[in-house]
């Protein structure tokens, strides 16, 4: 399925302003300003000024929060987003709920305690982000994430992402029965997304520390309906059969 | 959600020809002709003449199969359908693959050996059929069954049915995580069906014989999205709040 750009000039705009460049700029800006965010339940709250507001919005990280403060814009970062900025891009320090800085090991433990699936979900999130996909929650479509080729204002989400881990009790338990498969595939079809299953193999590494992540392997599969009628009428196949 | 009739006169037609009456006629006709079907894998095959062909089609039981035989019409009955005609309506005898008649106890064992979820699915199927719903496979919508108020040629399916059984390993394992919930609810919404969850409580009866079925309890729940915006704008609620 080809990317569905929003409007005529969107593709040109996206090509002129690659996501990798935007994220690099954000990384550099947050590093320079020694940015830090405060843990709050399953989110981290980050206050930034105009330039970084723009960069966070363009990188599609976090959600802006409306507050009475005029000179600062607060952003609410999801767990994967906060850990990605802190652990992967190394441009954000996280402070605990007691206002003390916490390191990546502690943050990893905290995230895991809040969400059993965090190690698998974070591996999937970072895997896609590192490849310059914009990754957002997929809850609206009953999947774990949706992945955009560029900013959602320019393009529709291309992939509906489910994170699985065969034989792993920490996985989300999706796609184990046919009815779930049918439901997911049918919904993906009706919202013009391709189902992308990321199967995470922990390679017996467990979840003790974030260093485990390096050993996790990610296997990507896209799943689509196979329509025998359509395939039969495919001219190239028909021609091959005739030959 | 109101039933969506197909065309203007469909509701009148349905009212004039209740499903309960059609099924009674079929039951009486099959009993008189001492009808029997042959087990074949997960189906039972039944050969009938013109009158019963019409009744089976009107009751929406089985699927007609195209064969070279001119005077007989073959129908392929699903497992729940065959067991319903044999065990519940007592109007069909079933012959095994060795061409010997088998009783309901043996048929029950056979069905269970073919499909682990059979006891739960059959309870759900018969529960709805006894209440004059037309029940068909829900695989197209990623659910276990769909339920129609009358024949599918007159009305769209109203309910997408999932069969659950809390804490039961034989259940289909659906709706255990939020993403599955979101997926199912979203799909049901987009195809204008209400999600009906039938939760079967086996009351510690196991699955040894079909007599267990009498002790199974069925709990019905319909599940819908709750839209806070819509509810807030509901005039009656606003008025009550103002008072």
TrEMBL record, chains A, B:
Recorded coiled-coil stretches: none
SUPFAM superfamilies from the UniProt entry: tRNA-intron endonuclease catalytic domain-like (SSF53032)
Name the record gives this protein:
tRNA-intron lyase
Please report the stretch or stretches of sequence annotated as the tRNA intron endonuclease N-terminal domain: 37-108
CDD domains xref list: tRNA-intron_lyase_C (cd22363)
In this chain the tRNA intron endonuclease catalytic domain maps to: 120-203
What molecular function terms (GO) are annotated for this protein?
nucleic acid binding; tRNA-intron lyase activity
What's a Pfam family this protein contains?
Answer: tRNA_int_endo_N
Among Gene3D superfamilies, the record links this protein to:
3.40.1350.10
Question: Record's superkingdom?
Answer: Eukaryota
Family to which this protein belongs: Belongs to the tRNA-intron endonuclease family.
EC number in record = 4.6.1.16
A GO BP entry is: tRNA-type intron splice site recognition and cleavage
Which reaction does this chain catalyze? pretRNA = a 3'-half-tRNA molecule with a 5'-OH end + a 5'-half-tRNA molecule with a 2',3'-cyclic phosphate end + an intron with a 2',3'-cyclic phosphate and a 5'-hydroxyl terminus
Cellular component, GO, one term: tRNA-intron endonuclease complex
């Amino acid at each position: 399925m080809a990317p569905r750009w929003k409007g005529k000039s969107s593709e040109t705009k996206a090509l002129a302003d690659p996501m990798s460049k935007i994220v690099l700029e954000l990384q550099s800006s947050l590093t320079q300003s020694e940015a830090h965010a405060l843990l709050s339940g399953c989110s981290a709250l980050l206050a930034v000024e105009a330039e970084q507001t723009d960069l966070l919005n363009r990188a599609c990280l976090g959600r802006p929060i409306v507050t009475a403060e005029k000179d600062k814009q607060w952003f609410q970062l999801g767990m994967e987003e906060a850990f990605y900025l802190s652990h992967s891009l190394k441009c954000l320090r996280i402070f605990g709920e007691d206002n003390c800085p916490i390191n990546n090991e502690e943050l990893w433990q905290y995230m895991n305690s809040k969400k059993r699936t965090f190690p698998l979900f974070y591996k999937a999130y970072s895997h896609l982000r590192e490849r310059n996909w914009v990754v957002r929650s997929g809850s609206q479509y009953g999947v774990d994430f949706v992945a955009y080729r560029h900013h959602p204002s320019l393009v529709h989400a291309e992939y509906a992402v489910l994170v699985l881990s065969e034989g792993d009790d920490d996985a989300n338990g999706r796609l184990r029965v046919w009815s779930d498969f049918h439901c997911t595939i049918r919904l993906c079809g009706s919202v013009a997304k391709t189902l992308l299953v990321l199967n995470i193999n922990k390679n017996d590494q467990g979840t003790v520390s974030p260093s485990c992540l390096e050993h996790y392997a990610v296997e990507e599969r896209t799943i689509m309906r196979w329509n025998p009628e359509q395939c039969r009428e495919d001219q190239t196949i028909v021609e091959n059969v005739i030959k």
